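If your schedule permits, I should be very grateful for your opinion on a structural question. I have a record of one protein: its chain in single-letter code and its fold written as discrete structure tokens. Kindly check, if you would, that the fold set down in the tokens agrees with what the sequence suggests. I remain grateful for any guidance, and I place the record below:

***
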Amino acid sequence: MASQDERVMISERVAPGMLPRVLNSFDMTIIFVAIVLFIVNASAIQQAHQAAYTYWILGFLAFLIPGALVTAQLGQMFPQEGSLYVWTQKALGPFWGFFAGFCAWWPGILVMVATGDAVVTLWQFIDKGGLPKAWEQGLVILAVLWFSALMASMRLRMTQSYANVAVLFYGAGIFVIGLAGILYLIGSGHSATGGWGTASNWSIHSGQWTWFGFVILALLGIEVPLNMGVEIVNMRSIKKYLFWGSIVVMVAYLWTTLGTMLSLPASKSVGATTDILQAVQVGFWGSHPFAIIIGLVLIWFFVANTIVYNYSFSRLLFVSGLEQRMPAQLGR
């Protein structure tokens, strides 16, 4: 348990005077969706067949909803810059606060590389045979990272407005993926994936528990928008973004999983990132150009998503600099 002196943080006094309050409920919800809703996960989980829905629902009940409730409470109690860093220091002291902040920060670096890789994979679906060499793929990933760094260094209000538009188009793309499955079902009269009425296909088996871990991984990031706690205009936005963001994430994952499973046979799935685009092509009467349009929307989102990761996770370094746990230049 941290002593009273250890709980007091420099960033609590300094950060509110350095950063303007520009984020409203809609902005926070957009950040939440951008961080948590990694829709290509709906491709990977196809290999679980109908049990995918069982694992999604278990993940929502065991992790997403409880996590949102806890985050709402902590966010209301300590609406400061740094979220997990601050909350842990309040409970356990400076060392563990910094440790928790670091552990929350470094996955953000890895996921920004993953979003760049997703851009490469999606482009290879659009341009068959494109980017065949590793150095070409590396340059694209670096370009995504450089662009995200440039955008993240600009005024938050402008950058957030750009992200808002990209995520809205992303939502439209997700709707189309699910719609593709419905159209395929109507047009063909049957689902590409069979066994919907077999109870064992929905059951959890001992050899499939890795899918539960996969679902938890897909739902990480609930607290990330609160890395910018002092930049929120109204504290009521905390509960609003957690409520609406969680609903959007749950509906989107289930909807996209359904669309992909109706359009493509789950028994033949290898969990490819581009399965969701293949589902669009199949559902919309074999239209590759239409699938390309959705692919371009997803590429735009993953570029914008990298920007969101960049400025969200940079706040942990900012707090570390203010707390003199890392070079002071990071706190400027």
Q: What stands out?
A: Residues 2 and 92 are 5 Å apart (CA to CA). Residues 4-191+209-320 form a domain with the Amino acid/polyamine transporter I fold (CATH 1.20.1740.10).
